[in-house]
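Title: Prediction job returns without error message
Component: structure pipeline
Severity: low
Priority: P3
Assignee: unassigned

Description:
Job completed but the reporter wants confirmation the result is attached to the right record. Sequence as submitted:
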Amino acid sequence: MCVNNIYIGGVKIAKTAALAPMADVADTAFRLMAKKFGAAYVVGEMTSAKGLVYGDRKTAELLAITPAQRPMAVQLFGQEAEFIAKAVELVLAQDAAALPDIIDINAGCPVNKVVRSGAGSALMRTPDVFEQVITAAAKAANRFGVRVPITVKIRTGWDEKSVNAVQIAQIAQSAGAAAITVHGRTRMQMYSGVADWRVIADVKNAVQIPVIGNGDVCSRESAALMYEQTGCDLVMVGRAAYGRPWIFSQIADGSGEPDLPQRLEIMREHIELAVRLKGEHIALRESRKQAAWYLKGMRGAAALRHKCMSLETLDDLYGLISEIKEAQP
């Protein structure tokens, strides 16, 4: 893949592949592993604007930025323009070293607890509220002397009868968004079925700001195909990166699939990094699903994944790795 760059506001991003924001999955350790393997851009876990305004400590922790993750966006969600504006101001009031490169507004999350409040992909059902939210975010960002662009992540629509991504993208552009990411599924599809790349292409043809395509990119070949079929400015990888952070180097430069020892070493590094960031007790419990993803497709994977669910300590992890190595031919 011929690598060049795109710009979101003044933020330079290599035109290879970005890591999608994934709540309870793409934490700091996950993002750092993705960056190590060549992710061009990463987005933090979805963060409640209202929680941030009300001073929730755990919410604030989701916004942590480190130099190794740049270029990086933090992602806010909410349906009240006032809280979105205040949250943007709080993010931008930090020391320069802690500022994100981009602030992304989530208008695509499909989970019930988010859409019931009118946030996430529910915003696509209320274009007037969506416009207020993006306008408020952009105006709040413009009040500061730093250049941190506002972007938006959406889906194709609420359901197949209300595919309105083009309308929503045009509203976002007019409201001051510097780029838009389109996941090629409706809210009602959740993560099932096939992503509709035609809608991504329609959005690209309807706006002048950069468009990031998301949905069903799982290899170098599918990334190239999305670029070709949609004309998007950047592709974004989500679930295909589960237990496969090397997918970014594969997309960027055609790197091969790691062998078993390499795969286990990457898994060990990932979980050890999580332990350094969160402590052993929390990290091992949260990393059980990560370990299981790394073992997908391996001989005896079902039984091994079951053992992942009982990991409590790093010694448990090291024992599992030794067992796998001894069992493999």
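Comment from assignee: result matches the submitted record. The CA atoms of residues 29 and 274 lie 5 Å apart.
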